[in-house]
Each structure stands twice: as structure tokens, then as C-alpha cells.
User: Which sequence fits this backbone?
């Protein structure tokens, strides 16, 4: 650039300055506030955004609180459920512990009174008749409260028909201890079925009723009772659980074996009953029915009476006495029950030591 050109450029007035000189005052102000306006706008936008975010955050927090409250309620319910469950388990545990204690007691008793010899060997008769075990029994227990159990031994016979008719007339259930010799006849089988159909208890009283043969050993006792057990089931469809020793549990023929018989029969689940009132009708000559009724009613006053009667062929006067016996116990406030494993046992005590 030469000097002339340089001077000319310097002498040219500044274009911007010329424009500024020409601009009015208001325009100057607008130009000054324009950046401020954008700043305010930006701040407002930022504030709005911040408010919006805060609102969203609050909304989110409220939602989260609701969720957490629901979860807390759920956890509280679960905790209550678990506490309930824990209480149940605690009760269950206590019950199991009681059962365990009972089982341990039983184990102790069995070890003490077991038929097994000290070396662990058991008598051979425990292995006999693997099907000769009493059926499981689940029913109501009867422990007294003026209960009378009428029992009839040595049948069935023609007298059984009359006994069944009288019991039916009074709405009374009794127990029939049948013997195999009578029960095996055609008429005997029919009567056994009638006994069961009427709701009475059919029970075992040996096959032969021959004391010498029956009480010769535990084996002979088991043989007869197993035969009768199977026979009763074959004829009636019912397995008996209850039995009675001919002559009572302790008699002149079984002194040497009755303890073992009781233990072995108990091991097999059978329950025996003696009696605490008797018709005294096992006599050679029939007794007058009034005497029989009076003897049967000697049980009045006991909480649980088991009355021994006979329904064998020669015991007609016992049957004649039966209505008076039933009425006598009814008048004294007794109810009648057939024998079953839920009835408290009535048994003879051990003989007094000499
Ligand atoms: Zn008998």
C-alpha cells in the first residue's frame, strides 16, 4: 500500500460510528436490554425446568412412599402370619414332646415287663398266628358315670333269641361272649349274625370251654382263641377285640399261665373283662329268676358295672330275670353300654398272698 492509499483509508469515517450517530435514544435502550431479556428468559426457563423436576421428584417420592407403605403392610401381615405359624409349631412341638415322653415310658415298661427273657429271646408263641391281632379301635372312652354292661356267656343258644328280643324291647346294647362249640352250628351262626346286626358286641370266650384243655398252656389258649376269632369274622364279618376267660381270669385251672396269657393277649391288642356283679346262674339247677335279678342288681352303686349272665341252653330263668334287671338299673339312673376297648377294664385282682 502506498502512502496515498493509507491516508485515504484513515480519513474514511467509521461506518458503525456513523450508524450510531444516526440511531434514536429508544433504539439504544432496546439494544441494551436485549441480552438482559434473554438472560431473564433463560432464568425463567431454568426455574420452570427446576420446578418441573421438583414436581416430578415429589410425584416419584409419593409413589415410592405408597409402594413402601404397601410393602410395609405386606411385611407386617407376613410377620403376623409367621408368628401364628410359630405358635402352631410350638404347640405341635409340645404335643410331640408329650408323645415322645409317653413312648419312652412305654418302652421302659415294656423292657421291665416284657415277655422277652433278659437275653432278648421271646417265647415261641409270640410268633404263632400272625393274623391274630385285635383290630384298631377308635371310639369314645367309657370310664363310668353309672354305666351298666350286661354280658352273656356260653351262647349262642335258643335263649339268645329271647335275650335279643328283650334287649331290643328296652333299647339296650349288650355283649355276647360266644363259645366255638355253640357258634359253629347252623343256628349258632345265624344268631351270631343277629347279635352283630342288632348292634351288640360279639366277643370271644374260647372254642371248647374245656378248662383242662384250654389252660394246659399259653399255646393251647391261643390256638382256641385264634380259631374262634377267625370263625367269628368268617360268619359275621367282624373281628372281635374283647374276650373273657372261661371261669374268670384267675381260676383253679390257669394259675400257672394266666399272667402270660394276659400279657400275650394284651400284646396282640385284646381286652378282657371279668365282672363285678353276677347272676350266679352257672349252677347245676336253675335258680329262681327273682334271686338272679337280685344278684344282678348288687352292682347298683358302682360307677361301672359289668354283669355276668349266661345265655346258654339251660339258663331260661336268667332270661326271665332280664326285664327286672334292666328296669332295676334304669330306675337307679344307669345307662347301658356294650363292651369295647374304650370301656374301662373290670378285672379280678391278684389273689392275696398266703
Ligand atoms: Zn363261660
Assistant:
Amino acid at each position: 500500500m502506498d502512502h496515498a492509499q493509507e491516508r485515504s483509508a484513515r480519513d474514511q469515517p467509521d461506518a458503525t460510528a456513523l450508524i450510531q450517530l444516526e440511531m434514536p435514544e429508544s433504539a439504544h435502550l432496546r439494544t441494551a436490554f436485549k441480552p438482559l431479556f434473554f438472560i431473564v428468559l433463560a432464568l425463567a426457563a431454568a426455574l420452570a425446568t427446576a420446578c418441573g423436576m421438583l414436581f416430578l421428584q415429589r410425584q416419584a417420592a409419593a409413589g415410592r412412599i405408597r409402594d413402601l407403605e404397601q410393602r410395609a403392610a405386606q411385611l407386617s401381615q407376613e410377620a403376623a402370619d409367621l408368628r401364628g405359624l410359630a405358635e402352631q409349631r410350638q404347640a405341635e412341638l409340645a404335643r410331640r414332646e408329650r408323645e415322645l415322653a409317653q413312648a419312652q415310658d412305654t418302652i421302659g415298661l415294656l423292657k421291665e415287663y416284657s415277655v422277652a427273657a433278659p437275653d432278648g429271646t421271646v417265647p415261641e408263641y409270640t410268633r404263632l398266628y400272625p393274623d391274630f391281632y385285635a383290630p384298631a379301635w377308635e371310639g369314645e372312652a367309657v370310664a363310668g358315670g353309672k354305666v351298666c354292661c350286661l354280658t352273656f356267656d356260653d351262647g349262642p343258644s335258643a335263649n339268645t333269641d329271647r335275650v335279643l328280643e328283650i334287649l331290643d324291647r328296652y333299647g339296650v346294647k349288650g355283649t355276647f361272649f360266644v363259645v366255638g362249640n355253640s357258634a359253629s352250628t347252623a343256628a349258632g351262626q345265624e344268631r351270631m349274625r343277629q347279635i352283630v346286626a342288632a348292634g351288640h358286641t360279639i366277643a370271644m370266650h374260647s372254642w371248647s370251654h374245656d378248662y383242662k384243655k384250654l389252660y394246659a398252656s399259653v399255646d393251647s389258649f391261643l390256638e382256641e382263641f385264634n380259631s374262634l376269632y377267625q370263625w367269628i369274622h368268617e360268619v359275621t364279618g367282624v373281628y372281635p377285640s374283647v374276650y373273657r376267660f372261661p371261669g374268670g381270669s384267675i381260676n383253679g385251672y390257669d394259675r400257672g399261665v394266666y399272667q402270660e396269657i394276659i400279657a400275650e393277649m394284651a400284646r396282640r391288642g385284646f381286652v378282657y373283662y371279668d365282672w363285678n356283679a353276677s347272676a350266679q346262674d352257672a349252677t347245676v339247677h336253675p335258680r329262681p329268676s327273682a334271686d338272679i335279678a337280685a344278684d344282678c342288681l348288687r352292682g347298683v352303686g358302682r360307677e361301672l358295672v359289668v354283669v355276668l349272665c349266661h345265655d346258654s341252653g339251660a339258663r331260661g330263668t336268667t332270661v326271665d330275670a332280664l326285664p327286672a334287671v334292666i328296669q332295676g338299673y334304669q330306675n337307679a339312673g344307669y345307662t347301658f353300654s356294650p363292651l369295647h376297648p374304650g370301656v374301662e377294664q373290670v378285672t379280678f385282682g391278684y389273689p392275696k398272698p398266703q
The longest strand covers residues 147-155. The two ends are 163 Å apart (CA to CA).
